[in-house]
């Protein structure tokens, strides 16, 4: 089924009373549901989103794990990094490609021509990516448990870590939205998404301790938002001081939302106004 078939019904949108908070939430709900339905009805996209992090778990745990010294069980070290990597790849690249494709086909122009909130169009896209992350976690967590991973710090810290992960994934999806609005095709969007995501993940504490990197690289790796998010999840899942990394991750997340949310909305308005 094409994305055009999943566009909100224009007569239903026009019939809703406009203005106010309830109108905005109604538009947001419609756009979020529309994007979730598109994901569900595109099984190849869902399969890719679920398969990629599983392959990373198996690859790093069983191929590279024996060669990486972390001072403890590598699976306990690895899984929080894989969770953040999964949220980053799914939310950022998924949003980038989806937004670019809809710009190319003219769907974004159609949304803008309808009597609906402008912010709900892009926000509905980024919120729907949270559900993709939840679906990936529903697959990855049981696999991690089978491999020996344990939430050693209790239920509430683990739940807090999952919520923090969803916030971070939502934040980077706004960066993905801005990139998707800035390129001219879905193919270019896929390439542009990989260009920054790949080094962003590898130059962090996701797979190896940052202390093993060259000194000049440690400065960036130890302070990147990716490392901060991974360290926060490790502390919440397996124990250790968490407050500093959690607060930094929250700050990074809201900073990304504010900056790239604003840039995305400006870009969206300028492109669809042409």
TrEMBL record:
Query: Which segments constitute the ABC transmembrane type-2 domain?
Result: 44-271
Recorded family membership: Belongs to the ABC-2 integral membrane protein family.
Is this entry keyworded Nucleotidyltransferase? Answer: no
| Keywords recorded for this protein, A-Z | Antibiotic resistance, Cell membrane, Membrane, Transmembrane, Transmembrane helix, Transport
| Keyword Transmembrane set for record | yes
Q: What is its main location?
A: membrane
Q: Which InterPro entries match?
A: ABC2_TM, ABC2_TM_bact-type, ABC_2_transport, Nod_factor_ABC_transporter
Pfam families tied to this protein: ABC2_membrane
Tell me the membrane topology, using the record's own terms. Multi-pass membrane protein
What this protein is called in its record is Transport permease protein
Cellular compartments annotated: Cell membrane; Membrane
- Transmembrane residues, as ranges? 45-65, 77-101, 122-149, 155-181, 188-208, 246-265
